[in-house]
Design goal:
With 118 residues, the protein is mainly β. It contains no helices and 11 strands.
Length: 118
């Protein structure tokens, strides 16, 4: 499986961005699509995930109510809609294919940079 993340950019605080992660190579039905981020000088952290089959979602507390993850089965593409962005959301965002039981990542996208200015 190859994951291609896109949609990052520079946005002012309070603004919105939508990240896209296109999966190719095999069906994603047995995975979660996860979103992670890594800010400068910090470790990578979990942001959100969606179970490809069924659509159940989970979010980090820091983004609940502001970020929404979704997917388009037909396009094999996942999305992360980010609203009310804050400067502390600045990071490189990665999508990943997570095993449904262990939630370990089998696949990673290349990352897309989100910069939120104050």
């Amino acid at each position: 499986v190859q994951l291609q993340a896109s949609g990052g950019g520079l946005v002012q605080a309070g603004g919105s961005l939508r990240l896209t992660c296109a999966a190719s190579g095999r069906t994603f039905s047995s995975y979660y699509m996860g979103w992670f981020r890594q800010a400068p000088g910090k470790e990578r952290e979990f942001v959100a995930r969606i179970r490809w089959s069924g659509g159940s979602t989970d979010y980090a507390d820091s983004v609940k109510g502001r970020f929404t993850t979704s997917r388009d089965n037909a396009k094999n593409t996942g999305y992360l809609q980010m609203n009310s962005l804050k400067p502390e959301d600045t990071a490189v965002y990665y999508c990943a294919g997570l095993r449904t039981i262990t939630l370990s990542a089998d696949y990673w996208g290349q990352g897309t940079l989100v910069t939120v200015s104050s």
